[in-house]
Design brief:
The complex is a heterodimer of chains A (137) and B (199). Chain A is an all-alpha fold. Chain A folds into 2 domains: 44 residues, no CATH class; 80 residues, no CATH class. In chain A, 58% of the residues lie in helices and 0% in strands. In chain A, α1 runs parallel beside α2. In chain B, α3 packs antiparallel against α4. The radius of gyration of chain B is 20 Å and the shape is globular. The termini of chain B are far apart. The N terminus of chain B is likely disordered. The chains are: A mainly alpha (137), B mainly alpha (199). Chains A and B meet through α1, α2 and α3 of A and α3, α4, α6, α7 and α9 of B.
């Protein structure tokens, strides 16, 4: 029913959607009730003063670091998840950087096995290449 | 072949999807991925806390507690999905309300000298008009500060965090319709108070 509290509230809510979508100078619709025309001015006023604040960069980064610590800790356990061991702060996790890490992966048992195998293989390759180099020289 | 009636409605209606579901799932698999959600919502949570506490340090403490609790509680987060918005965001703000309530119980008072928040009023050609508009907006928010908790928080969530009535309902534990009426009455109270101040 037009003019009922619920209908007024729905109408005003639609108007707020419009104002918050960027139409802060939005004009009222002719179908709005007198009550809502009155409130629309207050709504625009409140919207104009509704600033969103950002915490300081220092606080944001400090909390981000704390969350990373907690996420890496044992108290945030999710069954089946792997454990990522950071090599150095700020090291980009990027496949192109895997080359620079020499293929070393720290993690679960399978990854450890692969790492040991790849290290052993790399050592054998170095020995073979050194022996070959010495033969050539 | 076309379906009719309720069956058709059930068939054509898309499943509600939390906008943050992929990020939430990623964070559940690997908690280090929680940082994506943190970066997305840190300013919103901080702003809400700042409007409630009116003090930067208190707002930082609240923000820190909210995200630590959210990270630890993520495995138990019930992702039901809303037609619009994010259930994760609503859940985050529910945590924020609880933290704020605990903080109030601990402190038992607001800061003695509440800070004046800087209000973002678009610049106008007429500096005097800009100053007047800023003053009036500041007055409106000072009135909002004095409103009862649910009304005040509903207005902050609607105007600052730009949540829909439905999302606010999730945060406040009320129906969408009840939130609309709450906001309507809250704005009525602000308008009446401002009208009283002007006369």
């Amino acid at each position: 029913m037009i003019g009922s509290p619920d209908e007024d509230a729905i109408q005003l809510d639609l108007y707020l959607d419009h104002v918050l979508a960027g139409g802060r100078a939005a004009t009222t619709s002719p179908s709005m009730t007198a009550e809502n025309v009155d409130l629309s001015r207050t709504a625009r006023l409140v919207a104009s003063g509704a600033g969103r604040f950002h915490p300081s960069f220092r606080f944001e980064e400090r909390l981000a670091a704390r969350l990373r610590d907690v996420a890496s800790g044992p108290d945030v356990g999710v069954p089946g998840r792997g454990v990522l061991v950071p090599f150095a702060p700020g090291l980009p996790v990027d496949p192109t950087h895997a080359r620079h890490l020499g293929g070393i992966i720290l993690g679960g048992a399978i990854a450890s096995g692969v790492s040991i195998a790849s290290l052993a293989g790399a050592a054998a390759l170095v020995v073979w290449r050194r022996a070959r180099w010495e033969r050539l020289v | 072949m076309f379906r009719k009636g309720r069956e058709a409605a059930a068939f054509t209606r898309p499943l509600p999807l939390d906008a943050d579901r992929p990020a939430v799932e990623a964070a559940r698999r690997d908690p280090l991925r929680f940082e994506t959600l943190y970066r997305k919502y840190v300013a919103q949570v901080y702003s809400f806390a700042l409007y409630e506490t009116r003090a930067h340090h208190a707002a930082e403490d609240v923000t820190e507690q909210v995200f630590l609790q959210a990270l630890r509680g993520l495995p138990s987060f019930d992702d039901r999905g809303l037609d619009e918005g994010s259930t994760f965001r609503a859940w985050l703000f529910q945590i924020c309300r609880n933290v704020l309530a605990n903080e109030r119980r601990r402190v038992r008072r607001h800061p003695q000298v509440p800070m004046d928040l800087a209000f973002d009023v678009p610049a106008a050609d007429d500096p005097a008009a800009t100053v007047a508009a800023r003053d009036e907006a500041a007055r409106a928010w000072r009135v909002i500060e004095t409103l009862p908790g649910d009304r005040r928080q509903a207005l902050t969530l609607r105007f600052v965090d730009e949540m829909s009535a439905r999302e606010i309902g999730e945060v406040l534990g009320r129906s969408e319709g009840a939130v609309r009426v709450l906001i309507h009455r809250a704005l009525r109270a602000v308008a009446d108070e401002l009208g009283g101040e002007r006369t």
